[in-house]
Amino acid sequence: MLTAPHPDAPTVSRRGALWSVAGGSALLLATTAGQSIGGPLRRTALLAPHGGADPGSGPGAFQVNKTAAYAGITTASTRENTWRLELTGRSGTVRLSRARLRRLPQYGAALPIACVEGWSTSDQHWRGVRLRDLAALAGEEEAADVYVESLQAHGTFRHAWLRANQVADPRSLLALEVNGADLTPDHGYPARVVVPAAPGVLNTKWVARMTFGGQ
Known about the structure:
This protein is α+β, with helices and mostly antiparallel strands.
């Protein structure tokens, strides 16, 4: 084994190194945990995403990892009187306005958003149309796999596959509202997918098309 003939004195002891690692871990925990815990601790989460510089206290006041502006979503593409959801399945293609979606049976689900970047929200209260009801409307006799596409034109995760068992779950929604109010643009207005136990990237926002059964 090679050793220096005149080694310098150690600058950090083994115990000091361990304390440095422990201190850094504690600091990381302190600056991110508030996002998941919520409440007053949320403002301490300096290193995790927020719903804007000051998310405030309204129904959409929980963090996002991608804003509507970042995704290139425009007011013209999401305007209620022009936006249409395109459903494709065994019955062909059906186009639904947001007003028509509202006339379908509405259901609620309390679900968090868990991001692959390592943060999650507390439960948010979503309301909308069950995915399995949309599958039936597209002509599927049973819940089927679905390919979901976003209005987002470029970038990763602008589309996602959901399996039939996810579609069949009664908590899986095409959400129109969150926490008692319409979705905000950053949270996916006019409609977004919310699925239990799925990472946030599969909870597609700004939904434009849903293709059931691998069509």
